[in-house]
Queue: 3 jobs
Job 1
Amino acid sequence: MKKFFKILGGVLGVVVLAVIGFVVWVQARGIPTYDKPTASTVAVAATPERLELGRSLVLASCNDCHMNKKNNKLSGQQMLDTPKEFGSLYSANITQDKDHGIGNWTDGEVIALLRTGIGRDGRYRIIMPHFVHMSDEDVNSVVAFLRSDHQWVQADATPTHAQEPSLLVKTLVNTVMKPTPMPTKAVVAPAPTDQLAYGRYLVVGRYQCFECHSKSFETNNALEPEKSEGYLGGGNHLLDVNGVDIVSRNLTGDSGTGIGDWNAGDFTKAVKFGMSPNGPLHAPMPKYSTMSDGDAAAIFAYLQSIPKIKNATPEDKGAVAVQ
């Protein structure tokens, strides 16, 4: 028996040393860097259609994080709606400033960042969504707008604040949170006439609804979104700008805890204007005011087609279920 406990003690000692060693390594390495992604050298053509779509996409997907309310430009700010356990995280200056923004970046380098999460310096961007499933046309539209003469993107010399990640975030980005690869072929959005396929594209490609509305950022699967734990079943804990805990809503078709008892009109009002059958929606849920009614209807149709998850969230006046 003494020999058993001696062996057990030795094993536990090795495990403890391994854990301590891992923690020390994570703290020392911090946020990892990677080889710079191969970027296209072809400049994006700025057509009127791309500028219009790009403004809509930037408003929907970039403004909430990057908009500095002090100067009304996309010069970055502290991200107060990230979990406190993540430390203090900051969005980058993405204006056309050549020293502090992306003014010296090529269009290909911007696209590579949007696709992979890796910047031209090789640094991995924390929290930033990876638009790996977004169509080439949508990505090009975002880049065209970022190069435009719109006030939001005009050069601003506000330095990007250094990240202050917690040990948890350092651990996550050195283990489960990884860059995504550049697409190896053209990414084309389905035709809007194929409502279900187009709705899925909007959910996983253009707007990435699954990122917030699945169980947790930590278990989301960027490459295969449907494999994210609790896919679109809600329960992810977010913060509003006042640090109040907000739980994402169940978007599946469950009639008791999801949106199975909503109709397309209910969903359109919620996603565009922030007014649901249960009352007003709260930040950090954005209002997609420029989304067309047809796109909203396609998203709703797709959400009704996915597997239902029974998961009550606070707006259902019930306790949050464990998925």
Note: The two ends are 42 Å apart (CA to CA).
Job 2
Amino acid sequence: MILEPSAIRLLEVPYDSGHHGQRMGAGPSALVEAGAAQRLRDRGHPVQHQRLTVSSSWQAELTTAFELHRMIAAETAAARSAGQVPLLMSGNCNATLGVLAGSAPETGLVWFDAHGDFNTPETDPGGFLDGQGLAMITGHCWTAATARVPGFRPLADDRVLLVGARSLDDREAGALRDSGIAWLPPARAREGSAVTAAVTALAGRVQRVHVHIDLDVHDPSTAPANSYAAPDGLLPGDVHSILLHLAGRIPVGSATLAAWDPGYDVEDRMRDIALDLVELLAGLSSAP
């Protein structure tokens, strides 16, 4: 289901854990340099490219993350007002919180990731903020900080579909199973009937979706996305198939591509997968 070319606001957010242009923070700019915007223009999409950088002189993981959330929320809201589809390219997954803050309240979330990102500060032995992104979005942690992001409303668990997650801490996995989030591990995500059932259930609760793709949802034997990649992932064809099925049932209003570290992708295989996904997501998306 490829729609007429939508106008795209391409948001480049080159940060990883508060650091500019390092590790996964180098991914968004590398995709721009590889021609992401031009590929969209070649497919007929009008593209407005925005590169977001923080203005504060003191940069740290927490302060920088939430400053970026506020900037992304403002850009997302402006894109909606202009009839554009927001397409975020980010180093960190938690940046999706900003897109959801700027989105319509009836938006749901489909989250592709090797990990659950459902830790909280109380359950995360490593204290890694980006392993808490989905918990933040669903209101399970960092509620005082997320309340300062204009437009943010915690997303109800039953409006989230997690696809491809397979590498979780024990406490994180238990919390996820106890939540209302629908979870399709790789084996289930490869079953057409399971995908159909999950998408149909989500379609009954939301009017449109944001699609979040952490590129390490892919199997690293196909292409390595980052240092956190885990075996038994999805193949590019699996991800494309799920996206096509999803867009045939629920309008896609915005999307994120996150967590590509070019230093782990010496043969540029994941870069090419990511560029193909930029084109596909833009083609499947429609502005409100």
Note: The two ends are 17 Å apart (CA to CA).
Job 3
Amino acid sequence: MEADRLAKACQYGVLRHLAAAGRDFAEEVGEDPATGEIAIALHAYGTGPFAGTATIRNHYLLRGGS
């Protein structure tokens, strides 16, 4: 399913960013793998917690390390 692949890609991207941004996170995952369990919830366009007038800052996940 496409949504499952997107969620996995987002999860991988977030984990990769956190591990690269700070040694503390990478060390914690090494000590307790549950630390790296990142939950991703996908919402259809125009729905979810940031629908309507709510906003979120732009951040991007990069595919394939590029």
Note: The radius of gyration is 14 Å.
